[in-house]
Amino acid sequence: MQAAARIVARDGLAAATTAAIAAEAGVAEGTLYRHFESKDDLLIAAYRQMKQVVFLNAGEGLDTGLAPPERLKRTWKAIYLAYRANKDAFAFGQRFAESALAEREGSEAGRAVARMVTDLRRAGIASGDFKNLPQDLLGSLFMAPISYLLKAELKGRKWTDAELDAAADSVLAGWVK
Amino acid sequence: MQAAARIVARDGLAAATTAAIAAEAGVAEGTLYRHFESKDDLLIAAYRQMKQVVFLNAGEGLDTGLAPPERLKRTWKAIYLAYRANKDAFAFGQRFAESALAEREGSEAGRAVARMVTDLRRAGIASGDFKNLPQDLLGSLFMAPISYLLKAELKGRKWTDAELDAAADSVLAGWVK
DNA sequence: GTCTATATTTGGATAGAC
DNA sequence: GTCTATCCAAATATAGAC
Q1: What is the pLDDT, as a whole number, of residue B113?
Q2: A74 part of a folded domain
C-alpha cells in the first residue's frame, strides 16, 4: 500500500500499474493478488489507511477544553501540519479523490473530519462565537484552505509559521459572527 | 475536445480512451490522429480551451469602480457562477489538474485568476480594508472555497443563494483587517 | 478528411510450482 | 506466502483505401 501511494504521489495514478507497484514494493506481481482481490482494492485500502493515520496524528494533543475560536485555530493547524509531515500522503489523497475509484470508496474516510467539524461548530454556536451556518458549508470553509495551501507547498512554496497563523485567523474569521 | 472533456467529467480520466473519445465525438478512432499528435495532446488542448472560455465568461460585467470589499464578494460569486454554469468543465479541470498531464501544461491557464487577485488586493490595501498578506496566500483563501463548494455540488449538494452569499461573506472576512 | 483494418505494447489477472 | 510463466483484453497508434 505504501509503495502504491508513493508511486501515485510521485508520478500520478496512471503510473501505478501492477508491475510498478510490485517493483516498488520489492515483490513479484502475482504476489499482490494474494493480498488484494484487484488493483483497485489495493488502492482503496491504501487510501483508507492513509486517511486514518493522518487524522489520528492530527487528533492527538488537542485540548477540547479551550474556547471554540482558539480550538478551531489549533485544530486547523494540527490537520495542516499532519498532512505537511507526510506530503506524499496528501498528494496521493488528492489524486485518488479525483479518480473514478473515489466513487467506490464510499467517503468513509472523510467521516473523521466531519465529526470534528460538527463538534467544533456545536460548541461555538452554543458559546455564541460562531455563525449558525450549515455544517457542510463550514466544513468546506475549513478544509478548502488546507488543501490549497498544501498544493502550493507541493509546487515548492514554503509557508512561514506566521503565514500559517494568518491563514488560520482567516479561516476563523469566516466562522465567527 | 468537448467529447473528451465530457467523458473525463462523467467517468474519470481513465475512461477517456481513444476509442471512447472517438465514439463520443462520432468519428472513427484513426481520425483523432489527423488532428492531434497523441491522446495527451488532445487532452491538454481541451484543458487550455476550457480555462479560457470559463474565465472570459466570469470577467464579463464586473464593475471595477466598487469599494474593494463589495467588489471582492461580487468577483468571488461571478467566478463561482461561471463554473457552476458549466460543471462539466469544472469536473474535467479538477481531474486533469490532478493527473500527470498537468505538468506538461505549464500552468498558463491559472494566470487570469492571479491577475484578478492582485488587482483586488492592491485596491483593498490602499483603501485600508484588507490585511497586507502575500498575494498567493490571499489567492488561495479566495479560490479554495470555490473549488470545495463546487465539488459538493458535483456530489449533489445544492447551495442556496443565501448560502453562497454567506460563503462570500466568509471569504471576505478572511481578507479584511 | 475520414474510414477500416491491423500492428504493437502494455495492463490486469490467473495457474501452478516451490 | 511468494515466485515464474502466461493468458487475455484493451489501449495507443499506424497503414492504406476511398
Answers
A1: 81
A2: yes
Structure confidence at residue B114 (pLDDT): 87
CB contact under 8 A, A100 and B170: no
Interface with chain A: mutation pick from B38, B98, B150, highest number of A CBs within 10 Å: B98
- The 10 Å Cβ neighbour count of residue B119 is 14
pLDDT tens readout for residues A92-138: 999 999 999 999 998 877 787 888 999 999 999 999 999 999 999 99
> Residue A120 and residue A75: Cα distance in Å, rounded?
9
Residue B9 reports pLDDT greater than 80: yes
Percent of chain A predicted with pLDDT > 90: 85
Q: Label residue A55 by pLDDT band (50, 70, 90).
A: confident
The answer to whether residues B67 and B127 touch, using CB atoms and an 8 Å cutoff, is yes
Domain count, chain A: 1
- CATH number, domain with residue A92: 1.10.357.10
Dihedral angle sign, alpha carbons of residues B10, B12, B13, B14: negative
Long-range contacts of B120-123 (CB under 8 A, 24+ apart): B120/B68, B120/B71, B120/B72, B120/B75, B123/B68, B123/B71
Contacts of B13 in chain A (CB under 8 A): 13-14, 99
A73: pLDDT strictly greater than 90: yes
- The pLDDT value recorded for residue B126 is 97
Query: Is residue B29 situated within a structural domain?
Result: no
Q: How far is the CA of A170 from the C1' of D8 (A)?
A: 56
Name the nucleotide with the smallest C1'–CA separation from B19. D11
A13 touches chain B (CB under 8 A): yes
Chain A residue numbers with beta carbons less than 8 Å from the beta carbon of B100 are 11-12, 14-15
Nearest neighbour of B171 by CB, restricted to A149, A163, A174: A174
Domain residues for the domain of B124 are 40-175
For chain A, first and last CA: distance in Å?
Answer: 44
Position B109 pLDDT exceeds 80 = no
Residue A61 domain flag: yes
Q: Is B13 on the interface with A (CB under 8 A)?
A: yes
Q: Which nucleotide shows the minimum CA-to-C1' distance to residue A32?
A: D2
- Given an 8 Å threshold on Cβ–Cβ distance, is B167 in contact with A143? no
User: Does some domain include residue A91?
Assistant: yes
Length of chain A: 177
